[in-house]
Design a protein that fits this description.
One of its GO terms (molecular function) is methyltransferase activity. Keywords: Methyltransferase, S-adenosyl-L-methionine, Transferase. Belongs to the RNA methyltransferase RlmH family. By secondary structure, the protein is of the alpha/beta class. The protein is built from 5 helices and 3 strands; from the N terminus they run ααβαβαβα. The chain has a single domain, classed as Alpha/beta knot (3-Layer(aba) Sandwich). A 3-stranded parallel β-sheet has the order 2-1-3. The longest helix is centred in the last third of the chain and has 20 residues. The mean pLDDT is 93.
Length: 129
């Protein structure tokens, strides 16, 4: 059901934003990918001590990141052990979805919905109440 939910928001975002999930098999692969893209894509880490945003503030920040990242923002979600220290030490911006511990799958669904919500806030639709 989580994948179905993510696909729903991917579909809803079409025409405004592209949502895509890349699965990597190890922390090493994650670090290698992120560092290889550094400077080409703006990376944002999902980490409990990261900055918490209201939906409205996240919408504003997302569009600022899109401007800074040349229209490309990559949200990085760690696995069961969280994010590798090699990424946390890079100084990437970090956001928090809350103080509770979430599975990476559930974090992905929550983030997908918030990205869609951010686009609707930006457009001024009635989705966000």
């Amino acid at each position: 059901w989580i994948n179905e939910g993510v696909e729903t928001y991917e579909t809803r975002c079409r025409g405004q934003l592209e949502l895509r999930t890349d699965w990597l098999k190890s922390d090493e692969a994650l670090v290698d990918r992120v560092l290889a893209e550094k400077g080409k894509v703006l990376h944002v880490l999902l980490d409990v001590p990261g900055k918490a945003y209201s939906s409205e503030a996240f919408s504003d920040q997302l569009y600022k990141w899109l401007e800074e990242g040349g229209s490309r923002v990559c949200f990085v979600i760690g696995g069961a052990e969280g994010l590798p220290p090699a990424l946390l030490e890079q100084g990437f911006p970090a956001i928090s979805l809350g103080k509770m511990t979430l599975t990476h799958q559930f974090a992905r669904l929550l983030l997908s919905e918030q990205i869609y919500r951010a686009s609707q806030i930006r457009l001024g639709t009635k989705y966000h109440k």
